[in-house]
Write a structure and sequence with these properties.
binds zinc ion, 52 residues, globular, little secondary structure, 3 strands, three-stranded antiparallel β-sheet
Length: 52
């Protein structure tokens, strides 16, 4: 489950160490079309967005 950071509105995974009080999302927004749109290294555990 993704989390949107309250600080800079970036997206993170549920267990990202860099985001603590973000907003939990049920899904990523439509503008995120690939893992390359997600800047944080916490996404590196996934091979593709389909796995998120
Ligand atoms: Zn992160």
């Amino acid at each position: 489950m993704p989390i949107m950071s309250g600080d800079d509105l970036s997206y993170h995974t549920n267990d990202c160490p860099d985001v603590d009080d973000g907003m939990r999302l049920t899904d990523l927004p439509e503008e995120i079309t690939s893992l390359e749109d997600l800047e944080c290294t916490c996404w590196e555990q996934y091979d593709s967005l389909a796995e998120v």
